[in-house]
Amino acid sequence: MFYRTAGQFKTDYQSDFALFPVRQDAWLLAFILLLAFVVFPMTADEFTFRALLIPVLIYSLAALGLNILTGFAGQLSLGTGAFMGVGAYACYKLVTIFPEINLIVAIALSGFFSATVGMAFGLPSLRIKGFYLAIATLAAQFFLVWLFQKWAWLYNYSTSGAIQVPNIDMFGITIAGPNAKAITQYYVVLCVVAVVTYLAINITRGRIGRIWKSIRDMDIAAELVGINLMKAKLLAFFVSSYIVGVAGALFVFLWRGAAEANLFDIPLSFRVLFIAIIGGLGSIMGNFLGAILIVALPVLLNTVPHLFGLSISSSAVEHLNVMIIGALIITFLILEPHGLARYWQVIREKLIIWPFPH
Amino acid sequence: MNQRPESTQFRHDDGASPAPGDLLLDVRNVSLAFGGVKAITDISFDVREGEIRAIIGPNGAGKTSMLNVINGFYTPQEGTIVFRGKERRSMRPHEAVGQGIARTFQNVALFKGMSTLDNIMAGRSVKMKRNIGWQMLWHGPAIREEIEHRQVVEEIIDFLEIQHIRRTPVGKLPYGLQKRVELGRALAMEPSLLLLDEPMAGMNLEEKEDMSRFIIDVNQQRGTTIALIEHDMGVVMDLSDRVVVLDYGKKIADGTPDVVKSDQAVIDAYLGVAH
Predict the structure, then answer these.
(1) How far apart are alpha carbons B221 and B6 in whole angstroms?
(2) What is the reported pLDDT for B143?
(3) CB-based contact A13 B146, cutoff 8 Å
(4) Tens of pLDDT along A195-239?
(5) What is d(CA A187, CA A199) in angstroms, rounded to the nearest whole number?
(6) Is the CB of residue A228 less than 8 Å away from at least one CB of chain B?
(7) Please, are residues B249 and B40 in contact by the beta-carbon 8 Å criterion?
(8) Distance (Å, rounded) from C-alpha B111 to C-alpha A227?
(9) CB A144 within 8 A of CB A85
(10) Distance between CA A322 and CA A329 in Å, rounded?
(11) Chain A positions in Cβ-Cβ contact with residue B112 (cut-off 8 Å)
(12) Quick check: B98 contacting A, CB < 8 Å?
């Protein structure tokens, strides 16, 4: 009923490449963007911004970065948290060394630091794959977090060992630091995430995306159609770590406001990996679905029982949350390895032919 | 040659020589060993421009190893390979592609999670040059390049008659179609030498006939030189201009199908000899 593809004909290749070959998809996206840009900001309160909207966007971006590496190029990585840390610390150093710098520029530049570090730790991927590569990236995780703790220059020798985001203005509006309003931060994050996602979609649907997917599906055959595996894998690490680094900078500057080294420890890597797996490896939209689920779940567990008059202690909520996420991951791995994004695809295909499925 | 009289009119053929055209590939005294196992011993043969060259032999004769040497997957211990006048011993497979050698595999090596269209487009990856900056913007040169290559790919899809499976993930296709898609991916590379490793393995008669027709069409319409390995003797004798026969890593015969068929060493290799 909502999806009718009848009458939508493609007469040239350019229209066949369109992001939304079916018109209804474009309307759906327009609706979601309307929600994100207009409706949520008008209705949400401080708590919703800080606990739901901003973290969903930032985690989506981090998962998108990981998904490019793992879901598209097929290279497993457990170092996401540390690469986010590189982005955050790089941004912190940029902002403190050049106080005049525009924060958006600083965030965009800090991505290059994490991209370089990610590419360096991606070098083992030229010789090893799968589990062994995951362990090699795990080494990056431990080494970098150790570095964040021990290299005092990174946190400007502060006694607490933590980085503290100062008040940063852009065009006369405070966008980061203790004085910033949640709604401004939300808009900044939303714009960055929207732009990066659009660019990532373009990369993955063209030549480079095909090269990555062919390496994921069969690397020997990829080499025999003339793909330079070394270049393509390192490019995947570069792009992936860039996005992850930008997510890390947003994570600290526009959400947490302060960070210690252990924030970027392995639980963060796992969290992002879970989002990518539950959302769907090899999908862009899946990252958003996964992030919504993982971020919203504890909030829901906190609020929903109260609506029914039940009182659950906050530690019980914490335990419940971990248990449910664990169960979800096992369920997804068994039932639908392609995650939530695959469910959406199935629903969409069914809707297109509904109500006459034959 | 006499099984395919119609093919002669496309060839600048002097009638006596069964192999027209210039030398495209020259394999000179190649030996390849894995530790103590000698896969190929001192083999020389050539492939001429525009011909269909078959490499046959019993199982374990070294045929696939030979193809792997030609497209750079293995490095021979001895001997050299001259391709289009350039001499070499070793190179990476993606460099061989750059020189114009494409191949298909004995057991289909497609990208299973990708659609037929994407698989064949992947074969054009080397020919596409736009960098990641243009790709990100999906604008101007990047989109023009994509359209240009899409047209080439659509022509291949038409040629192989696989329009109906354009959007299907290849992992879901039946085996015969997968082989056809793999041929399409190799054609997308516009090779000057196409290596086919058992293009008809595991096919039924009808699929074999289709595939034979595609191979002949590729050879005649596109002028692509083909070197193929095949076990079906009927197919080999009908398709190929010249045949080289390997046994236990050694060359035992080389010549037109008629010559090879009546060669005593070949008959012995296939049927065995009483000792």
Answers:
(1) 13
(2) 82
(3) yes
(4) 999 999 988 888 889 999 999 988 888 888 888 888 899 999 999
(5) 18
(6) yes
(7) yes
(8) 13
(9) yes
(10) 11
(11) 217-218
(12) yes
Which residue, among A89, A106, A97, has the nearest Cα to A154 in the 3D structure? A89
Helices (H), A68-224: 80-97, 103-122, 130-150, 182-205, 207-217, 219-224
Residue B103's DSSP bridge partners are B195
Which residues pair with residue B242 across a beta bridge? B53
Q: Is the pLDDT of residue A278 over 80?
A: yes
Task: Summarize the confidence of residues B85-110 as an average pLDDT.
Answer: 82
Q: Which residues of B touch A225 (CB under 8 A)?
A: 97, 102, 122-123, 125-126, 185, 189
What is the pairing mode between strands B78-83 and B86-88?
antiparallel
Position B35, amino acid? G
Query: Identity (one letter) of the amino acid at A251?
Result: F
pLDDT averaged over every residue in chain A: 86
Average pLDDT, chain B: 82
Query: Tens digit of pLDDT for each residue in A129-157?
Result: 888 888 888 999 999 999 998 888 888 88
Reported confidence tier of residue A6, pLDDT bands at 50, 70, 90: low
* Distance in angstroms (rounded) separating the CA atoms of residues A237 and B138: 21
- Cα–Cα distance for residue pair B205/A278, rounded to 1 Å: 45
Contact in structure between B91 and B111 (CB atoms under 8 Å): no
Looking at the partner chain, which of A14, A207, A225 has a beta carbon nearest the beta carbon of B189? Answer: A225
Comparing C-alpha atoms, which of A241, A271, A253, A242 is closest to residue A89?
A253
- Rounded to whole angstroms, how far apart are CA atoms A303 and A65? 31
Rg (CA), chain A: 21
* Bond prior to A355 in cis (omega within 30° of 0): yes
